[in-house]
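FW: tagging you since you asked about this chain on Friday. Here's the raw sequence from the shared folder, copied in full. Didn't touch anything.
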Amino acid sequence: MRVALFITCVNDTLFPGTGKAVVSLLRRLGCDVDFPAAQTCCGQMHVNTGYREEGVRLARHFTEVFAGYDAVVAPSGSCAAMVREQYPKLAKPGSRGAAAIAEVAPKVYELSEFLIDVLKTDDVGAYFPHRVTYHPTCHSLRSLHLGDRPTRLLANVRGLELVPLPGAEECCGFGGTFAVKNPAVSAAMGADKTRSILDTGAEVLCAADNSCLMHIGGTLSRQKTGVRTMHLAEILASTEEAQ
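HL: got it, structure written out here
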């Protein structure tokens, strides 16, 4: 398959290792992976804060950049949901933009969706000998309805002990601009999530969105808990040889 990596702003700027992990993993599974250098922000921040026209412009650019691929894979449930859910609402019905979105948006997948629904595998040959708990981020849970896809993948990682997270479906408090507009509430929600993580005794907190991991990880770090945060892609890309 000819697959494009949609890296997303947060990963490109702050977590480039996640993008490298996606490429390594998909190539190991036989995919031909491209990285279109012209890609930019998907426009989620703009649309969510009322800048609709900027969102329309970025959606148009996205469809131009990613046209022609068999699939577009994003290591972010949040940004994949933006393209699939919000892009169709931005274009005028019957327009060229609407047609382009209808062509590209259904081919955009969050990583675990692509592995299980497209490549038809829940065992990617990974090895990660650590105690791990998984946080299902809001967009992946409520917009993409990922369900148990990420945990199915984690359960098949050799050496990994997967422990359930109490209150897993509760928001961590990040919410993009929500954390900026409501910092006190956001911090309180992050503290609640941190207590649940510590109750598991996990060494590593895993999620499908680095934005949420960044938020939770800040609290974990300030409290000197010793719990690491890792994106799902980085765990799935791990092999015995790399340990």
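FW: The chain has a mean pLDDT of 94.
HL: agreed, and The CA atoms of residues 214 and 230 lie 10 Å apart.
FW: great, closing this out.
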